[in-house]
Amino acid sequence: MKLRLASLLLALMAPLLIAADKPVLVPDISSRQVQIRYSFTGAQLLLFGAVVYPGGRPPDRQVDIAVVLRGPVQPILVREKQKIAWIWMNADSNRFRSAPSFYAVASSRPVGDLLDERTAAIYELGIHNLQLSPGGGALPEKERRFEAGLLDLRSRRGLYGEYPHGVEINGGVLYRAVITIPSQVPVGTYTAETFLIDRHKVIAVATRDIQIDKSGFERYVALAARRHRLLYGLTCVFLSLFLGWAAAAAFRRRF
Q: Using CA atoms, how far apart are residues 112 and 58, in angstroms rounded to an integer?
């Protein structure tokens, strides 16, 4: 009976004993909440932390760290414009079910040097490893073309970015990375993921949440648009009509 209890206790403690032999990430963020006001021109987030090794001693070999800041996932319809009869118009479209509204990855070295393609795809490390989940029904060539267009469009807007030497590691223990958030960043709950990589393997992962939201008058307008859609739409229509009438009246009086 005692032998069985000892075996059961050892089986229950095995995961804890194994975890004790692995390093642990202790991440933090310079700001857990970002407020967007009318004067918001962008922000810089400092993601930093430490690596706690078993026994308190870092390994002799070099370890690497990658930090990913990911925005809320949302469906998106991508349209392709073509010049038809000397006029640019929407000629084709493709829908993606789950594209991150914001994505930035910073690493101590290029992701291609840290991980193999399969592992990078599993953890979605790198813009070209994002799982965008196409809507289906389209040919593979068309899906690849629209995916490349979506990545290029959001990269040029500053919503997607890669920083292959954006993480600084001091003494193999302390790390820091700075990620820029553009002014047109969407609101919502963002996730900051930190990956500890050793010999092409992810050996530790830690996650922190960041809230990006509007404040002041912008917040009031955003809440009104979501909670009172009909009233908000009618107000916009009447406001447009009033401004048009006022501009026309002022133009007639002047001339």
A: 24
Q: Are 104 and 179 in contact (CB under 8 A)?
A: yes
pTM value is 0.74
CB distance 189 to 33 below 8 Å? no
Q: Using CA atoms, how far apart are residues 22 and 18, in angstroms rounded to an integer?
A: 7
pLDDT, tens digit (0-9, with 9 covering 90-100), for 226-251: 666 676 677 767 777 777 777 777 76
Q: Which CATH number fits domain 22-71+98-215: 1.20.1050.10, 2.60.40.3880, 3.40.630.10, 3.40.50.970?
A: 2.60.40.3880
Q: Which two tokens stand for residue 24?
A: 């642990």
Token digits of residue 86: 């000397």
List all residues 6 or more positions away from 97 whose beta carbon is below 8 Å from its beta carbon: 75, 132, 133, 134, 135
Cα–Cα distance measured from residue 197 to residue 203, given in angstroms and rounded to the nearest whole number: 6
Beta-strand relationship, 33-36 and 201-214: parallel
